[in-house]
Amino acid sequence: MAAVTLSGVARHAGVSLATASRVLNGSSRRPAEDIAERVRAAALELGYVPNAQAQALARSSTGLVGLVVHDISDPYFSSIARGVQHAARNYRRQVLLASTDPSESAEHDAVSAFASHRTDAIILAGSRRAKPDPDLEQELARYQQNGGRVVTIGGSPGSGLTVPVGNADGAAALVTRLVSLGIRRFAILAGPPELNTARDRVKGFTSALEAAGLEPAAVVVSAFNREGGFDAAQRCWEELQGEHGVCLLAVNDVMAIGAIAGLRALGVSVPADALVTGFDDIPTLRDYFPSLTTVHLPLEQLGEEAANLALNPDQAQPDPIPGEVIIRESAGA
Amino acid sequence: MAAVTLSGVARHAGVSLATASRVLNGSSRRPAEDIAERVRAAALELGYVPNAQAQALARSSTGLVGLVVHDISDPYFSSIARGVQHAARNYRRQVLLASTDPSESAEHDAVSAFASHRTDAIILAGSRRAKPDPDLEQELARYQQNGGRVVTIGGSPGSGLTVPVGNADGAAALVTRLVSLGIRRFAILAGPPELNTARDRVKGFTSALEAAGLEPAAVVVSAFNREGGFDAAQRCWEELQGEHGVCLLAVNDVMAIGAIAGLRALGVSVPADALVTGFDDIPTLRDYFPSLTTVHLPLEQLGEEAANLALNPDQAQPDPIPGEVIIRESAGA
DNA sequence: TCTATATTGGAAAGCGCTTTCCATACACAT
DNA sequence: ATGTGTATGGAAAGCGCTTTCCAATATAGA
User: PANTHER family recorded for this chain (chains A, B) (predicted)?
Assistant: First the structure.
């Protein structure tokens, strides 16, 4: 990657390195216009491209923001990523992406790679776990100590910088609404309990059920993806011995889709034989049939808020982003 | 971002900078084990994190690979991104992501930002246009001249490094198969003609139709997304004055979904009144109803191949990745 | 024992920038 | 003519690392 350097440009323009730097890469001092013009012409002619690494080293700021997601191909995360990307552009920052899916240690690896690359901030999307990996925590603590900003999406408002998401409230609101529509029997398709997002939503479900004087007919734990929903729904159906009209509360849309598919594979149709709800209101699934009853979350906005929080020190921590209950055909409509 | 530096570690361990570097960050020379141990202990104790920027500057290689997509929230691109991410991890590379959606110049901006960050390679996913932006071309040319590798996904096998995708062949195979199933009337929901991917697929459709002695009943141009499909289907339906049993060939799955929604909004049901096909076989849409007749593309694999091509100089350019026709309910099943 | 040859740690020169500090030049007031 | 204050370009130090080159020591050969 040998390329035209600033000193090459300076020489070509017959000025010093310092002057060239001041002209091309912004500074409080602005050289005289005729000189500046000469430098710009030289840069253009030689095809100068500033070396961001060298700038980062000299300025000790990289203009990079790291984004950690579980699975970038999951529409939940990719929507968030879009928001982050969008906001980052406004700050003229580049996004370093890590999709940590398979391995347990990948999250830690990603954070330490980001620390190594001296990203100005790190955004953790929904990856915060209930029992935190101590290595990860230490890595993050050190990162913050060195001036890096860490923002989580969906953390509790107390724990450092976070874009709080009304997971519990949204889940509760959904149940309350369904109850008001006359539904009485519920089962919960819970994600892995160590995932905060999943846990908060389950908490919302159960507390609202309790408030309505109800108890979940079943709580099935499973993976946080389509296959998890598929399995969970089938196991749940078995556990309920084919009881009709039960509403399966999945902790996200992708699981809900899986659940509907799992039921269909058993010859159970939604919403005729069973009801299913999701959470997130993934755009790609808007046209799904039967249309999904869910809790709408402005995912892209979550990403944007996270990026704002990460990149703008003056940004106040936002109020919890509320979810909006959306009743569609898969339950209650 | 003041942090522990290598020279701090060296001092703490009582060795020179050179030795510390050799121990911690790999080199052809391996210092004696007792010394190495001392250095490692010092690094651990102080919490040393190597500065990737400084390393990049000294080594003139950043360990970064840039990925340019149109819209990271589009499942087509996010699946590819997942593949790229996955492969990059094997090479211990980090992925710099740019989602260029709205503005025209964003693609150019992204490439020049990547050039500035001295990414070792740039992967352009489906962004190659028929009438190339001369600025972009120049930027890419310069980048390559400086030793950067550029890989496109779905380019023609001639044009530089590319992971060729059998867009035309897949499209043709789909039509041929549908014809063999007895379908005779087709309309094409084409994407924007300047997009190579869209154009190649349309070409495949028309050539197969021609080979079967047929002509498209309509060709409707529109955006490459859900809304584009929605509009296109409605306009198409109008143009065909409600003719029944026509098969609408959308150039991708997301448009197909939009098309089905558009038709449904007109009270037209698929596959009873009209047929619709997609392209890509997006995983998130596998459970869609009616299930989508489409051409399966191993999207994640495309991303992986692209990353291999970008990061491994010995990697031979792969053969075109073929699409596999999948007949489901939305047409022909 | 003495020279020829590896082996090993360290000093120092960059990598491409930013930024502080200095020297010069110029404007103006005295 | 002298002094003061203010622009402005350039020299050079330094950001944190890698790597070449050197010197010193250890090993082998005769």
Answer: LACI-RELATED TRANSCRIPTIONAL REPRESSOR, LACTOSE OPERON REPRESSOR
